[in-house]
Amino acid sequence: MASSRITELAVIVSLNTRKVTDYLESNGMPTPSFSIDAPLNLGIPKEAVEIDNARRLALAASIELHDLLQGPSACLKPVINGTSLNAIYIYDIASKLKEDPKAMDMAGLMFDECWQSMARTVDAMRMFKSHEPNQTGHALAHDTQDNMFDWLGKHPEKARRFTSAISTLVPTGRQELFLLREFDWASLGNGTVVDVGGSSGGVSIQLAKEFQDLDLVVQDLPEAIDGAAEKVPVELRPRVKFMEHDFFTDQPVVAEAYLFRAIFHNWPDHYCVKILQKLVPALRHGTMIIINDGIAAEPGTLDLLSERNIRAYDMLMMTLFNARERELDDWLGLFTQADKRFKFIGAQSPDVGTMGVITAIWEDR
To answer: Angle of helix 101-108 relative to helix 82-90, nearest 10 degrees?
Structure first.
């Protein structure tokens, strides 16, 4: 008699949980707990790929097991804990206990911006037939004609909270290391790399440390780079510069490469095409375009946990920005629409459905 799916899932949870537990115990690390002094995450290092995969397998199987044991009907009636969490945020209850400012900022972003916006997203889809970034669930929920970035610019405290919360979501660690290793930065020689929309310059600082022949120019809006130069290590300041620039205007710096990290997924396709086209005045034959952004997998090709995360993030991008996560063919389409002289080279990611490295070269001969 064939085993049932719930039995199979229980075995997957058990086997992979044991792998994680054995790893934590053998390395003297605490086991997961909700106690007040427990660590905020498991602390599995980026090098322990097999253990992190085991963790994800256990999570994915436990989610499916949970849903199957509830049954299809109960899955349509999820118990939402938003009211109690919202009260914790509004009345600042968490500050009376152990503080985590970024966790509070994330809670505020979810309750004040995201949840209200999600409730109006279908309304926006009905009302607006275009894909403008100010015709969104967020715009309806907050009664504004501005896109989210312009709206944040008029609300400094919300902008601060948004930046703080998003800093916990932008992938670092193994995926950031992947960016440094996947592209042959040394091939640029004594060249200049422009980090377009690079905010405080974290990635550029890492590149300057690793590749001492490179000069880095970090471009962003004034409020994004305010005070960033003072945080660059003194020994790197001659090679890491900051410059005010709006990437919807012509690129003023001629460079060997242009890096876009976590930029395009915030904008609809026709805006992404415009961003690429604004590079053209500065491009020379052989200039490299390096995009570090999500490469979504085709539906049905990932484990349940990864699939849910990607689709949820995709819908959040639509809710807030009228943007989306893109599959590989979508990335190819952006280059083709922008200018036929952009030639796609390749795309790689450390894991399916995660932040990858997409490269293209400018060929005008």
So the answer is: 120
- What is 174-300+321-362's CATH topology? Rossmann fold (3.40.50)
Q: Any alpha helices (H) in the chain, and if so which ranges? A: 5-26, 49-70, 72-75, 82-90, 101-108, 116-127, 137-141, 148-153, 156-166, 174-182, 202-210, 222-225, 269-277, 304-321, 328-338
> Dihedral (C-alpha) 265, 311, 315, 122: value to the nearest 10 degrees?
150
CA–CA separation, 121 and 54 (whole Å): 35
**Which residues are the active-site residues?**
265
Q: What is the Cα–Cα distance from 39 to 73, expressed in whole angstroms?
A: 36
CB 133 within 8 A of CB 148: yes
Tens digit of pLDDT for each residue in 257-298?
A: 999 999 999 999 999 999 999 999 999 999 999 999 999 888
Name the token pair of 208.
């300057």
pLDDT tens-place string over residues 294-344:
998 888 888 777 888 888 889 999 999 999 999 999 999 999 999 999 999
Which DSSP letter does residue 98 get? S
Q: What is the pTM of this model?
A: 0.80
Kindly list the domain boundaries of the chain, sorted by start residue. 5-75, 90-166, 174-300+321-362
